[in-house]
Structures are given as C-alpha cells and as structure tokens.
Fold these 2 entries.
Entry 1:
Amino acid sequence: MTDFDLSTIRNIGIMAHIDAGKTTTTERMLYYTGFLHKMGEVHDGNTFTDWMEQERERGITITSATVTCYWKRHQINIIDTPGHVDFTAEVERSLRILDGAIGIFCGVGGVEPQSETVWHQADRYKIPRLAFINKLDRVGSDFDHVVEMIQDRLTRYALPVQLPIGKEEKFLGIIDLISMQAYYYDQNTLGFTFRTESIPEDLLGQAEQARELLIECVSEFNDELLSLYIEGDEIPEELIRIAIRKGTIDNLFVPVLCGSSLKNIGVQLLIDAIISFLPSPLDMGSVTGYEKVTHEEIKVFPDPSEKFAALAFKVQIDKFVGKLIYIRVYSGSIKKGESFWNHTNDKRERVARILQMHSNKKNDIEELHAGDIGALVGPKFTITGDTITSPDLPLLLSKMNFPDAVISIAIEPKTKADLEVLTEALTRFEEEDPTFHVHQDSDTGQTLLSGMGELHLEIIIDRLMREFNVKPNVGKPQVAYKETITTTAVMEEQFVREVNGKGNFAGVKLRITPLRENQLRDEKRNLFENLIDSSIIPEEFWTAIEESVINALNDGPLINSTVERVKVSLIGGMFNPVESTEAAFRIATSMCVGKALREANPAIMEPIMLLTVITHEDFVGDVISDINSKRGKIDIIRIQNEHLQEIVAEVPMSELFGYATRVRSISQGRVVYTLEFKKYEIVPLAVQLNILKRIRGY
Ligand code: GDP
C-alpha cells in the first residue's frame, strides 16, 4: 500500500462491567460501519463477537477478539477486552497494545466495580479514554448521576460533550454540545439513518450551560480557543474538537457521551468521537524498549520505513488455521513470506500468512505496518508477551505484567486414550493463556491446573469437553498457597561423600532473612546476595550455589509450595582444591536452604482477594456479617445510588469458594460482585494448623 496513512488508524479497546452493553455496542458499531449485514442481539445468542460457544451461553465475552472496521476513511481496530476479573490477564494484554479506549457505563448501574478496576488498570498505561453512558432507555437511568459517579470515582477530568433528550422510555435522541444540534435516530432502519434538528426549546438553557462549562474546561488545551473564549467571540466547532482531542490524548480530559445501543441511539456519534478524539499510533509517538544485551534504552517510532518491531499480545489456536499470533506492530512492517527474529527465545521464524481478524472471520492480507494489529500464521515458538523484530534489531519491549494464579484443581483422565488428548489440550491452553498453568503434584502424581479464579478453571474444563471431547474427573478447587519465613536463621552445611573412590566435598554457610513485600522489586520473589570472596569459595562455584538456592526455594518446608519474600545471603563456606565439585556445592546448598527454612519459623501464605459487592440496602447487614464470618476485613461501605450500597472488603480466597451461590441467596439475587487478586498474606496460626492437617495429615 502506498497511500498508507498512519493518522487514519485507531486501535481502541472497549472496557466495561459485565452487562453494561459492551457486546451490543460493538455489534452496533460493526453494523453501522457496514461490516455486518444482519444485526445480532445478545439475548438471541447470535452476536458476532461472542463467537465461542460457551460465550454465547454465558453471555459474556471471554477472549479478546480483534475486529477491524472502517468509518469515514479511517480504520478502527477494536480490541475486545473481557469484562470479568477472572480474566485480568486478557485485560492487561489488550491494554498494553491499545492507543485509546471507550469505557461503557450502564445508565442505571453507573460506575460498577469492574469498570472501576479496569479504568484504574488503564490509568497505569495512561490510555486516553472516552466514556459512553449507555442504556439511557432503561427505567431508573440517570445521566447526571452517572456523570457525577465518573467524576467522583474515576476522574475529575470527565465532562459531557453530549446531553440526552428525555430519559427512560422517553429517551428520544442526543444533543451534541459541539455542533449544538439534536440527533434523532430512525428506528425503521435500526438507527442506520438519523436526522438533525435544532435543540428542543425546553433543553436549550441546559445545553447552553453545559456547552459553556465544556468550552471553559477545554480552552486550557488550545490558546486560540482560550483567547476567543476570553474575548467572548464566536468559537468555531472545529477548534473545540481540536482542543478536546488534545486534552483527551494528554490524559487531561475525558469526553462523556451518551446513548442506548440496544435502541440504536447515539452509536454513530460514538464512532465519530473515536475518530475525532482518540489518538492514532502517530499521536502516541515512540515506544521504548531496551537493547537485549546492554539493556540500553532503544526508542522505536511508528514509521513503516523503519526496522520492524512488534509485540505478540495474544496466541489463539484456531481449529482450521492452527496457531494464530496476534501482534501489534510498533515500527516498520512485515510481509507475508518474510522472516522475523524472536528475541525473547532467540528463534528465527517465518510468516506464512497474515490475517486481519473480523471477530471469527479472517481476511488474508499481504502486510502489516507500524501501528497496525493483525494475526500471523506460521510461527511455532512465539508466545504471548514476546518481542519480534527484524533480525538486525536486538530489541526487547517490556514484558507484560500477569498476576499470580490463586486457585488450582486436580484432574484425572478417565481412560488411557483420554490422557494423550488431555496432555495435548492442556499444553495448548497453557500456550494461549499466560495465567493458566499445569503441573504435576510431586506427592500425589495428580495433574493440577491453576488459574485466576473458579470461573477461569471452569471454562478450561468446559473447553476440554467441547473442543477435545474429554471429560476428566475433576477435584474440588484448592487455594494456591505459598510459604515464607518469619525470623532470621543462619545455617552451615557440609557435603562429604566418597563416590567411586573419589572424595566429594563442599561447605556453605547461609543466612536467610524474611522480607516485606515492598522490599522486592521487578517482579522478584526472593533475593540472593553473595557476601564472600573467592578465597572462601572459588568463583567457579558461585553460579551453581545461586541456582541451587533458587531451586531449593521452590520446595517449602511445610507443604512443598513455593517460598517467597526471603533474602538468602551466602556468608561463608569451605572448599577443597581437589575434592570440591559443582555437584557437591549444589547438594550442600540445597540441604542448607532446607534446614535454614525449617529453622526460620516458616509460615503458610494465602491469596487475599478484593471483594466488591453491590446490593440493595436491605441486604447490606447480612452481606457484611457473612464477610466478617469469613475472616474478611471491610474496607469501605459507600452509597451507590438511592437504594444500592457498595461494600469493599479483603477476604481470603479459601473462604470464597461457592460465593456466587451464597451471596445470591443472602441478597435474594439482587447483587453484583467482583473478585480481584490483592496480595498474599500469612494465614493465622489456627488456619495454618488446619491446612497442615488436611495436606500433611498432622
Ligand atoms: P456486555 O456484558 O457488556 O457485553 O453487555 P451486553 O451487550 O451483552 O448487554 C447486556 C444486556 O443488556 C443484554 O441483554 C443487552 O440486550 C442489554 N443492553 C445492552 N445495551 C442496552 C441498552 O442500551 N438498553 C437496554 N435497555 N438494554 C441494553
């Protein structure tokens, strides 16, 4: 393509609480941009983006499908972010590669817990955003209240650029505060056509006031606008748009829009706003990575003529095509048939095909340019989070941040034939999903699956049955415990043994100290320091000792789980120039770490979740006493709207199995809640004794 213009690309995500209308809105966008011919409805179970079977049944969007559509000579790549916290990895993955996002809020529910979580995740990545207040046709919807909630809980920089005309069943259209026109959508064409009129008399005063506020606020972002505003002169519409765009891209302003996707009101204006206010890859500028060996910073620019650099942000196994690797290209371009270098695993791979995804439909294309998003077919070894580049650009973009798995279940195949299929299927799932892990329990020989929550693992089991036709026996979900120490210990250990008439000797002295979580940086779980010099133990053995320390910390003294928040210092040792070997140092170190851990008052740590419950005021008391009885600590209780209250608490994961059923029965079904991993914490002694009894039998 020679007329490739980066400024016409928008890579955007849609973030929302479950049920706020993300799927319906995406659906409408695809319809109006001319891509879909028949509009799908969520309640009919035939929407386009929810293409996985279980997604249809559950009515939630699990995988982040990317969809490309075109509007007014712009290309919009929509990266679908999931609404359930069990899928945070998906959210993180998509946020990493977005340039902008739309937060969709329900006109009744307002800022619900998941929208708040995802919004703050997006804050971390400084993603420019629009807010779309949906469902204004619903009984109980309240535009002004939701705007206040957004300002209160998410950002004080949010201001309406539109106002609704009417509400609930009388929600008729939208006032655009920039053009000062009223938009009405023709329901006979499912909102495809619309007409503009002057603003209804009774809303004119309110609209003028809101426009004044908007202009005052955004005049900060454009000097020309500011002087016109101060002089009280006429302000051209285009100048207001330029100022809003500048404020939005700099993360200093969030335009608030409104509508009803289901009733086909306001979606085209939302697509216009994506183009007008959200950034193109050019606006986002360079991306910083680092040189593989020297770790020096390298900047890459969104320029198709530069060297190729991209990030693999998702891997999906497609039944027909095989492995699909979704990439975001940051600079240069890649063509079908070309090779790239994967610097994360040092492999060269070839691109057989390039696909642009239209949800579950795929279009073959010839090349991907800087700023673009697409899927590669052919590479075998590239996984989520890998940096891929031209062979002569030794660049690593920073890795994505994935939370720990907090629960696990044991599964067992029913037949020998099942075992093979199961192993293949689990390997695939592990490749696709960096928060899903499979390992063998060394004591029981069982296969353990671990992930982010009950729903996450339920879906994996579900997929085993549907896609691979295996139905394993499944155990009860278990919490993924970890271990740590509570006091400092110093330990000395020697290894002396004769093997085949030859002596083996090594001696090490270690000190282990407990660390607080905030003493660890860069995702490190433990620290190692070497305080000796080569006269005590020659340098050639140091690496073996450090590796042996790291390995030994994978096997805790209490329940064989991983040990974290420990600093191990090598403070002494002994060697013999003839008999000392690397193997002897490894064994001595491993024994020494094991003994030191037992000496340092080890403790079990459990995952603590942040639980957010919204329920009717009548049930708040019961929800709180249930949380208290589950070792939970209440953080905040606040009013959501007239009758609803929000309770935020920290509760151990182990107390939360089956919470969905319990909380629904407490609140007679009038509840929404979310769970999010917060931290690992040492369990109380009585709980520790119970865990030991259960796992160890004493
Ligand atoms: P998601 O979970 O955020 O993807 O939400 P969906 O798009 O699946 O919508 C959840 C439910 O709300 C479905 O039953 C939709 O039909 C309904 N819905 C979506 N948008 C609107 C709207 O604007 N008004 C009303 N009344 N219902 C809506």
Entry 2:
Amino acid sequence: MAIALIILAAGQGTRMNSDQPKVLHKVAGAPLLIHAMRAGAAVAPDRTIIVAGHGAEAVAKAASDWDEGAEVVIQAEQKGTGHAVAQALPALKGFEGKIIVLYGDTPFIRAETIEKMAENPADVVVLGFTADPATRYGRLVADGPDLARIVEYKDATEAERAITLMNSGVLCADAALLAELVAGLGNDNASGEYYLTDVIGAAVAKGRRASVVTCDEAETLGVNSRADLARAEAAFQARARAEAMADGVTLTAPETVFFAFDTVVGRDTIIGPNVVFGPGATVESGCEIKPFCHLEGCHLSTGAQVGPFARLRPGAELAEDVHVGNFVEIKNAILDQGVKVGHLTYLGDAHVGEGANIGAGTVTCNYDGFSKHRTEIGARAFIGSDTMLVAPVRIGAGAITGSGSVITRDVPDEALAIARPPQLNKDGLAPKLFEMYKAAKEKRRKEAK
Ligand code: UD1
Ligand code: CA
C-alpha cells in the first residue's frame, strides 16, 4: 500500500528563544526534523511532504540535503495543525493510500510504532500514550476499544482533563478520507485554531472507525525549549549507549561517551572515557578508541587503535591495524594497513601507503592560503620526526626523510631526503657562552636596583 508522510514543521518555537527555526536545532548531531524524517523513512513512504513556515528556506534545505525527494510546502501563517495539514493536501491530490502525519519537533517515534499504525485496519489511527493528568496534552476520549474524539486540554471539561490517555499528535488515515475531513474543519475553539485532532470526532460522525495505537511517553518526547533539547539529547545518548553495549561494544565509562545519530560501532570494539562522535563515523569490530578522542565522518577498519587525544575529521579512512596516537589530527586522508602515526601530527589531504611510519611532529602543509594540495607517502616510508611535507609532494615507497626536514620536492623510492641546514660543532664554545649569559644577567640585576 502506498504511504505519504506529512511532517509538520512550520512553528517558530518561541520558547527556544532562537533565530533558528525550532526543527533545525540538533540532537546527536542531526536536526530534529531529520530525526522525524528518519523515523518516517521506516515505512518506505512514496511521498514525503514537509510543511514549513518559520525559516522555511533553511528548513527546505535541511530536508532536501537529507532526502532529495522530500517536498516542501509553505504554511505562511500558523493557524493550527489542521490548517498545516490542509496546506500539504493539494500536493497529494490524486494520491491513493495512507497518510501519516508526524511532527518535526518530535524526534524519537520508533519505526516499529509507525509500522504498527500503518498496519492498523481502522479508518483513522492516533498514536496515544499514558501520562500524568497534570500534563496539557490533548485527551483521547475512548468509546469502548475505539476512539470517540480528541479534546484539547484548553477545551476540556474537568472530567475530560482527568483522562490519562494522551494524544501524541501522530496520526494515520486514508488519504481521501483525511482530505474530506480536513476540508470540513472549523476553528470555533479556545485557541481559534484549526485543530487536526477534530478529524477523529468527524470521522466517527460519518460512521468511520477511529482507533488508538499506544507507545511509551519517552517516544513522544517533543522539544519546545532548550531544556527539552538537553533532555532529548540525554535520552538519545542513554539509548545509544545501551544499544552499543548490547551490540557487544565495551564502554568503560558509558555516561561520558557521546554518539551521533548515525554512529556505527562494531562488536568487541573498546571505547574509553570521554569519546565524542560527530556525524558519519563508522568503526568496525575489534578497534580501540582510547580516552578523549573526537571522531567525525571517518571510518576505522578492524583492529585500528586511536588516541588518547586524537581527532579524526571527515574523510579520515583507517585501514586494518592502523595506529593513531595522541595529539594527532587526520582529515581527508587514507591510511593503508599497519600505518603508525604515534604523536603530535597533522595529516590532511594525504594518502599513506601500507606500513609507513610517521614520526612525531610531522605536518602535511596542505594549504597555501588559497588551495588545498595532496601529499602522497609510499608504502613502508619512514618520515622522520618534525618533517614538514609541503604539498603537493610525493614521498616514494621505502624512502626516509631526515628529522626536521622541510620537504618541498618529490622524494624518489628508497631515497634518503635531508632538507635542513648542516650541523656545525664549535669545540669548547659552550662554557664561554654560559659565562656570557651569566654576566649579562648580573648586569641587568644591578641596573634594576
Ligand atoms: C498538539 C495536539 C495535541 C497533542 C500535542 C502533542 C492539536 C490541535 N493538538 O498540540 O492534542 O497532545 O500536539 O504534542 O493538534 N504546526 C504547524 N503549523 C501550525 C501549528 C502547528 O506546522 O499552524 C506544527 C508545529 O510546528 C509542531 C506541531 O505542528 O511541530 C504541533 O504543534 P503545536 O502547536 O506544538 O501543538 P500542541 O498545541 O502542542
Ligand atoms: Ca507542542
């Protein structure tokens, strides 16, 4: 059966106190909107329509960066959730199948939950959850096992406010029926808004069946403030850590490890304390990430060891058994099997061949102020400590660079390159220098008096 998603994301999110639209604030490195789109993607929707309003241009860009096929419609004025859905329906004219409505600011709806809703045979299905009656969610008014209507908190009677079955806002309905029901919505209520929730009562009045699927309150966690955003981050991290451990990853101090929305870590990998993942990191099995590393847009093959205090940036590609040590930064560089980069090094826009050894303090000087240039280091090459590799430059296989060299020209295979001033030894000069320094210090001390 065909499925279309409508994701409501027009609201400003006043309580975020931000210049940015609410749905673009990030949890685990991805905008809230992308979390909602990812959840919806689980039912393989044929169409995805985002309803944007505040910051529509930026919202549209984020949506299409994630999914080129996502369509964006504009709701210029926010007149309620029913009005928002109405803006999306013309784009779905003639669409046959089910429509699922999600909120862009509700990131944690599980794929299984959305699937369950799509499979439910009722004409309209609402996602509900049980919560404390002190909360101000819309109330699901039941009629036996079915649903009679939804009443917004503001419009509810005392008796209705005592109901503990709440509306999450997620809804699934036949496309043609939803269009008919939304067209009939009015705004005669406490907020003067077109409530999407009114479609339930309207469907039942037409003799259609409305039903509820329930989920845990944590799944429907919505973000309205910075405090909510922090809570959402904490909830995401707690779940990601638990999942990683269940998948066979050792976390020495789980509460200090931060994953991104798309981090992948293989079995028997060990992650030490205070490791932070940005988007796009994949770590295969049997790796070790020592304390205080930051990894983003990178890939570690089996047996790679990184850190402590290493930074892997986008395009860092570590083959099997590569060792990257402390205070090493790697960006857009491929390190072939068994490469060792132990200490205090920057490798950017580079390819390092199998088994090469990069000495402490090596720098690929990849940027001339205007353009980036590449460095090629051949297999089994030995780069002496404190070598500056002024790119573009190529070091041959099995070659050596002398410590402290500034390499500006290519080095042939198996050559030794030394590019530093030759050493000068002056016999017996050291004690004389010490005397001079001592006298100079004494003179300064007397003058200061
Ligand atoms: C809505 C539900 C309520 C439910 C609650 C769950 C209605 C009338 N009420 O209330 O029953 O318990 O969500 O969180 O649906 N939006 C637009 N355009 C608009 C209005 C809203 O795009 O004109 C978007 C918002 O950006 C947001 C979502 O729809 O992502 C929900 O809107 P919000 O105003 O937060 O609804 P609630 O009043 O919380
Ligand atoms: Ca809300």
